Amino acid sequence: MDFFNRQWSSYRAVVEHDLMEHQAVATATALTINDWLAARPGHAPAATMLDLGCGDLALLAPLLKKLPLGRYTGLDLAAVVLPLAAQALGTVPYPSHWREGDLLGWSTGIDGSDPALDQPDILHSAFAIHHLSDGDKERFLGGARRRIQPGGMFLWVDVFREPGETRQAYIDRYVQRITGGWQALSSEQKDHVINHLSQFDMPADREAIQASAEAAGWHWHWAWQGKHRAEAMALLTPA
């Protein structure tokens, strides 16, 4: 098994054993999107959705199959997962598009005039933006604010630090959570997760990122918060 497949297998194990509360996230996502759609004017055209870091859609696909969308586009940096996502979504009554790409690149407009990526009504991203530096998160928020439809919504699912908590304190706390409570994973799988978060995870400070978002022109609302003081979902709408 190659490196990507080993890493992906560890990620799938985390999801399947619900170690990061993916099931609660999926439920909260469905409720939030459905409530937002229900509040739209009846004459509004079907909403378009852009999913940044779509992955394999293992959890989101059941919701997407039920949504009355006008278009869905999944974007991911790992092109190898896009066929998996397409297979999970299957046949739906609206166009679906798949793009290899970087979410920061999307927000800054380097994708050019690709209509599948332009002006979404619903912007969604789950467990991807925390890989950006704090400065790049601010750039992303500013670019996304310019690229979303004026009446749109941005649903941001991710891990966040407690206010004032350092990155190292967060990592130490999360590693303790993994070593002490993730018995469903093998030692190798735990090592994969720990190595990844130690090297690549840069979760935002909750209070600081909310202030940055509001400065970039967003209204911020915490739509769901997990029980481990890490996973959470924010609903952002253009101010």
Label this structure with key terms.
globular, 8-stranded mixed sheet, 9 helices, 239 residues, alpha/beta
Low-confidence stretches: none
Largest sheet: 8 strands, mixed
Ends distance: 48 Å
What share of residues are in beta strands?
Answer: 15-25%
Element order: H for helix, E for strand = HHEHEHEHEHEHHEHEE
Rg, nearest Å: 17 Å
Average pLDDT works out at: 95
Count of runs of 4 or more consecutive helical residues: 9
Strands, count: 8
Shape: globular
Structural class of the secondary structure composition?
A: alpha/beta
Task: Describe the protein's architecture and organization.
- With 239 residues, this protein is of the alpha/beta class.
- It has nine helices and eight strands.
- Strands 1, 2, 3, 4, 5, 6, 7 and 8 form an eight-stranded mixed β-sheet that branches.
What is the fold's blueprint, element by element?
Layout: H1 3-16, H2 22-38, E1 48-52, H3 61-64, E2 71-76, H4 82-89, E3 96-100, H5 103-108, E4 122-126, H6 134-147, E5 153-161, H7 167-181, H8 187-200, E6 204-205, H9 206-215, E7 218-225, E8 231-238
Parallel strand pairs: 1-2, 1-4, 2-3, 4-5, 5-6
Antiparallel strand pairs: 5-8, 7-8
Helix pairs in contact: 1-8, 7-8
